[in-house]
Design a protein that fits this description.
- This protein is α+β, with helices and mostly antiparallel strands and about 120 residues long.
- About 25% of the residues lie in helices and about 35% in strands.
- It contains three helices and six strands; from the N terminus they run βαββββαβα.
- The strands form two sheets. It has a four-stranded antiparallel sheet with strand order 2-5-1-6, with helices on one face.
- Helix 1 packs antiparallel against helix 2.
- It starts with a strand and ends with a helix.
- The model has no long low-confidence stretch (mean pLDDT about 90).
Length: about 120
């Protein structure tokens, strides 16, 4: 099994999840609200004549646990769907090997459930 994680801008969450489902057939995802910044280093706002800097931007961390054979396709679907057209700040995607994924309710390993 492989864990595919992605940090994306909040406006692209549904687009990314739909793209993963449509292009790979994978339907399970965990979405975690997050804040952070990359090269863009946040944004500057002006409110009532005063300038405020927001160092951290609202993001979402998407976590998919997929069969090893689907990991590359899931990462590609995420990367493609997460693009907003902005110069920077669309996020990143990475994969990590995962061992022993077990459903809490049934006690069955995920591989047994996926095949069965």
């Amino acid at each position: 099994m492989t864990k595919v994680e992605a940090v994306v801008i909040r406006e692209r969450i549904e687009t990314v999840i739909d793209a993963v489902e449509d292009e790979t057939g994978h339907v399970g995802v965990t979405v975690i609200e997050a804040v952070g910044h990359g090269r863009q280093r946040g944004v500057t706002h002006e409110y009532r004549g005063r300038i405020f800097e927001s160092r951290f931007l609202p993001k979402a961390l998407l976590v998919f646990v997929v069969d090893d054979g689907k990991a590359e396709a899931v990462a590609a679907a995420i990367s493609s769907a997460a693009r907003s057209g902005n110069e920077s700040g669309d996020g990143i995607v990475w994969t990590t090997p995962v061992d022993n994924v077990t459903h809490s309710r049934t006690g069955l390993r995920l591989e047994e459930v996926e095949v069965g």
